[in-house]
Amino acid sequence: MTRYVAQRLLVGLATLIFASVLVFAVMEILPGDPARLMLGIDATEDSVRALREQMGLNLPVIQRYLHWAGGLLVGDLGRSITYSVPVLELVAERAAISVPLALLSLVLLTLIAIPVGVYAAAVRGTVGDTAVMGMTQIGVAIPNFWFALLLIYLFAVWLRWVPAGGFPGWSAGIWPGLKALLLPAIALALPQAAILSRVTRSALIDVLGEDFIRTARAKGLGRRAVLWRHALRNALIPVVTILGLQFAYLIAGTIIIENVFYLPGIGRLILQAITQRDLIVVESIVMLLVASVILVNLVVDLSYAVIDPRLRARA
Amino acid sequence: MSDPEAITDIQTSPGFVARAFANRSFVAGLAIAALVAVMAAISFFWVPYDVTYLPVTNRIQVPSQAHWLGTDHFGRDILSMIMIGSRNSIAVALVAVGIGMGVGVPLGCLAAARRGWLDEVVMRFNDLIFAFPALISAIMIAAIFGPGAINAIIAIGIFNIPVFARVARAGALAQWPREYIMSAQVSGKGATRITVEHILPNIANQLMVQGTIQFALGILAEAGLAYVGLGAQPPAPSWGRMLFDAQTRMMIAPHLALFPGFAIVFTVLGLNLLGDGLRDVLDPRLRGER
């Protein structure tokens, strides 16, 4: 067990380091001088040189990488060119929207997909199963931002139940904040839930064919107890694996969905930073997003050991 | 394919076509995919209206006999825009699948053939690339070179590499211990030749199924990138961009957002059905599991 955890941690750490080298290298091949880019074409040679020195651009590449990566570790992400504030401050402010949005959609995704998948597996081959699977087939094909537009039209324009976009800020209270995040979270969660419920169904159907299920039924356990307690637990490995992969999609999805709903989160920040060529912001956020994907994959790997005692014994 | 016993490729067995056309998913998926492909092909020679001409007086019209799907805010015919936009979607997704296969399959085969540290390096490289969702790669590429269809292709293509590497590796690993491979080894064939002559034909089915799935995902990803302005740039029509333009006009003209969305769902649904059908037909063991 300890060996398995240590091994996974090491792989995760190595991936993180390589990812940071990759992000840094990609930003390094940028054509043009960042200092000149920041100051504009009218800047004098002296001021460009001064800024280059201030930004540490005159240092060797390796030293600059270490400085940047070391900064990331202690939360020093540099300074935004357009906003003239530390990037960390910007990111923290925006994360107060993006992180709850991603988590809310993750919760919705799980709460919808697993019961639907379990239901479809339990009634396999019936009309109910066919109907659910048909719906998920369509759900998989729906782009989340288009689904978001339909939701806006239905619930905000037509029924006027929720705002069409924007964010009132958490200072307005938790409920108005959550209300503003509800449609975006549904738009993110439902298409992914279609995928996860299909995976849950097929994993469960595999497990339901196994001997221990028959034993559990034979010793008098009810269908429902067998399904939820015995079968689902054994079907969790593929479900958690896909859920982990889906987190990467949710993160990428928030970037798009925040733009649909005009939510001032990290996604909008990064797209604005691209148009303003605020590369320090782009670099830092890309690295943060990639790091969170790596972290979630690590958590998924570690959760295998908790879900499946056999893996624990083997490792 | 020098030794006959190596031919386990179900695709070449005589019943393939008959079985394929008995599979509802396959038939429906093929029909939809063919329809979209034909529409894209026709758009090269003919579209109902010229989309470079902007008859602004004709703007935001509801569907009518003259304009089956209505017109947009510049007065352009939506059906013509969707037809031309399909070329962009197909081209981006197809080339991205090509990049994924072209790099991923050799990597996966190499990892399976050599095992050991090389396998480890390839798999860790896969993990690394996997941490960069297509949108994040696209953001990095756009930050450097500016947005455009080519960048969308590269970003989606890069994301496809580890997917194909994994499928190819898993498929190849299952083939290597088999007897016909050993007999090929005994007859003096090298790893490269065995991979090309025996492994690849035997994992082609799995790669084709995965290719269809990635094609569908590529269409979705392209639409998303175009929607946030990182894909094809206007005035080139693209489905994602049409939805972006439609958003601000939802109140007055919801139909603007409806048809490009239907086009995406229809195409992706068709490709997914085709992929499911292919999987069922090519690998009967999996039938009924999905």
Give the key terms.
heterodimer, A: 315 residues, mainly alpha, 13 helices, B: mainly alpha, 10 helices, 0% strand, elongated
Structure annotation, total helices of chain A: 13
How many helices of chain B does DSSP assign? 10
Number of strands of chain B: 0
Mean pLDDT of chain A: 86
Q: Strand count, sense and closure of the main sheet of chain B?
A: none
User: Would you identify the regions of chain A where 5 or more consecutive residues have pLDDT less than 50?
Assistant: none
Provide a descriptive summary of the structure in words.
- Chain A has 315 residues and is mainly alpha-helical.
- Chain A has helices at residues 2-28, 34-39, 45-55, 61-73, 87-122, 127-141, 144-158, 174-208, 211-218, 223-260, 266-275, 279-307, 309-314.
- In chain B, α2 (24-45) crosses α10 (255-282).
- Chain B contains 10 helices and no strands.
- Helices cover 70% and strands 0% of the residues of chain B.
- Chain B has helices spanning 16-22, 24-45, 78-114, 116-130, 134-145, 149-175, 179-186, 191-227, 239-247, 255-282.
- The radius of gyration of chain B is 22 Å and the shape is elongated.
- At the A-B interface, α1, α6, α7, α8 and α10 of A face α4, α5, α8, α9 and α10 of B.
Offer a concise description of the structure:
By secondary structure, chain A is an all-alpha fold.
What topology does this entry show?
The complex is a heterodimer of chains A (315) and B (290).
Chain A: H1 2-28, H2 34-39, H3 45-55, H4 61-73, H5 87-122, H6 127-141, H7 144-158, H8 174-208, H9 211-218, H10 223-260, H11 266-275, H12 279-307, H13 309-314
Helix pairs in contact in A: 1-12, 5-6, 5-8, 5-10, 6-8, 7-8, 7-10, 8-10, 10-11, 10-12, 11-12
Chain B: H1 16-22, H2 24-45, H3 78-114, H4 116-130, H5 134-145, H6 149-175, H7 179-186, H8 191-227, H9 239-247, H10 255-282
